[in-house]
Amino acid sequence: MFKKLSQEFQTPFYCYDQAIIDNKINFLNNLELNFNYNFSFAIKANPNLAIINLFKQKDIGAVVVSSGELYKALRVGFKPSQIIFNGSSKNDFDLKYAVTQKICSINIENIEELKTINDYSREKGLISDIGIRINPGVNAETLSKISTGKSGDKFGIEIDQIDFDMIKNFNHINLKTLSVHIGSQITDHKKLIESYQLIINLADKLNKKGFEIQYLDFGGGFAVIDNGNQGLDFNLWSSELNSIMNHKNYKVIFEPGRFLIADSGYLVSKVDFLKKSGNKNIALLDSSMSEYVRCALYGIDPIIELIDTDQKSEKIKYDIGGGVCESSDFFIRDALLPPLKVGDIIIFKNVGAYGSSMSSNYNSRPRPLEVLFSKDEHRVIRSRDTLEDLCKNEIM
Ligand code: LLP
Q: How many Å lie between the centroid of ligand 1 and the Cα of residue 279?
């Protein structure tokens, strides 16, 4: 398939295997969880309309973090009652848009958001369902740049910073949800369980004081198997989760992003140039940190695969970089690979999450085309930016 696609489309482009996405959904749906729950896709991982639509069709909900994502979710046809709005710093427009759409829950992370939501809901004659994202003070022990649940992090609110009695005075909000999300690519299920337990305890306590917390939003963060990284052990996770949820009547929401979409996505790229610099063999690709920024941003090594390269030849070390004018625009250093030739196709695997969604137009590079394939069929789900697209919002 990659060969066929790379003959049809100019590299670099993203492509997604629908069968893998379906498998991931089935996997989650087949987990044995003994309580009421639902999975909602964290759209930030991949906001392409066609991808979001795949999840909608399988009754997965939607988690958004901006007005743009909320718009996309509604445009795809999610019911407002299937949408949750998170976000560490939402602006007035975000909050007002979410209020008027009457979504399932606006999860606040700053006490001041309450006043904006309450005032605007009063103006519109509404009572808005809200949640509070708690900072549980749990170190997820994942990459420090994607950890969000420790004391000192900007996400959520620490419990002792919340005056719950004061919240009761807001007549146009209904505190219905407590949420946590301690980070991404989490492999240690105990960390997740610890964070869940904290908000279960808090919900129990609040409901004894007259609140009506119905939803527990346990966030996302399920790791996928990556270079040198194990995935999350779902057996251990689900059995411990079942035991802490035993006899609890809350409805649980999970917000996986990466788990649902990472493995299905590939970035197909081509070797444009080969050169030597000192003792380094450098390969420069037609993709760059503009198309895939995670290596430069987080210092992670991608999983790469070559097609049509003589795998038996003696391997050579390469530094593989991109076409952007930045010294940090490297995907991987000292990668041991068979000798490369100009024109070789290199595939980046596992890039369905936070790949295209974090791509940019830096260096005025067109954002790449995206293709969805299913068995032998494929279709374009995003066209490559045209040169005119790069100018379209600018005024000379
Ligand atoms: N819920 C909340 C509140 C979140 O902040 C996130 C991701 C998710 C759910 C989904 O997390 P996931 O299941 O995908 O781990 N750009 C980084 C990842 C940032 C994740 C931000 N929050 C990366 O490329 O690794």
A: 38
